[in-house]
Amino acid sequence: MELVNRFFACPEQSYYLFGPRGTGKSSWVARLHPGALLIDFLQPDVARLYQGYPERIRETVHGQPDGCTVVVDEVQRVPEVLSAIHALIEEKRGWRFVLTGSSSRKLKKAGVDLMAGRALALEMHPFMARELGSLFSMEKALRLGMLPMVWDAPDPAAVLASYIGIYMREEVQAEGLVRKLDGFARFLEAISFSHAQLLNVSRIAQECEVQRKTVEGFIAVLEDLLLAYRLPVFSKRAKRETVKHTKFYLFDGGVFQSLRPKGPLDRADEIAGAALEGLVGQHLRAWIAYGKRPAKLFFWRTQGGSEVDFVVYGDEFFWALEVKHAQRIHPADLRGLQAFIDDYPEAKPVLLYQGRERRLVKGILCVPCADFLRALTPGVDPFQANTQPAKA
pTM for the whole thing? Predict the structure, then answer.
């Protein structure tokens, strides 16, 4: 596969680069910083060396010329070095530190706050369609997701099938995040049914036959490993009572497809709809993370049942996006958006669907989902960049 340019931009100062395994952090950092000193804590012998003597990093860096770049890969494995790195930055000798990580649990306890803003906290996400350009395939994205390590693999299905196993073995078990891996494995299967759904912790606990606190802990593990995220409900100046639950997503559609059990009683369109919604969600998160215009991602659902899948709200953006896995537009598909713009006429309502035509229906812009994803570029409004549609 040809080298794919990513939207992630390298800052001049020291920075953290968080992201799940397989998003291409290490390879991209190596490309951005050729010749940098690499300290790789994925290597067990290197990790043991610094765990036993964290101050070694001061000796190592002092042996380098002023102004050099130091890459510390998977820094969460030895968070004790962060105090020394903070002190090195304070020496103001031009050293730049690039600290990658695929888990935030240990850093929350022992590191990030020590940097006191001396290092930016940035994120690396799975591929965006715009990054892949002509290589992007909607069918492949829905089936296998957008993880670089999967997309570029000779046997992507096999890599995806082992992905969660890698996390369970190398992260969950190695860090002692859960006591019983078999219980966590059952939870992973159960939580896959909550992808693109309101999160009901009590129901999942009943399905797994464990306590609610255990499920809450398991969900926290997924979030700390950056494998899942929750969206809050948009309730700013709400005119109607909104739901209290958050909405849950696995971070990549391919991971969802791998975890989600399938059988004769499962509806293919239901799984495909959740996969499409998740694909849009992960693109929107990447668009926000890589862009320089602040915005936040929400969903909207009232107690009366009106719902919009995604709300993008920021200084310059206010979008309401509904995602439908359908080739045609039906009046019922527009009801949630119509209810939203009744309450928030300032918002731009958009329906993303699987058809081929860009249309304007009852004041709502209807855009083929594949076209939207291909056009989504960080820092750019994809709707203003396009030409005006013909009215329906």
Answer: 0.91
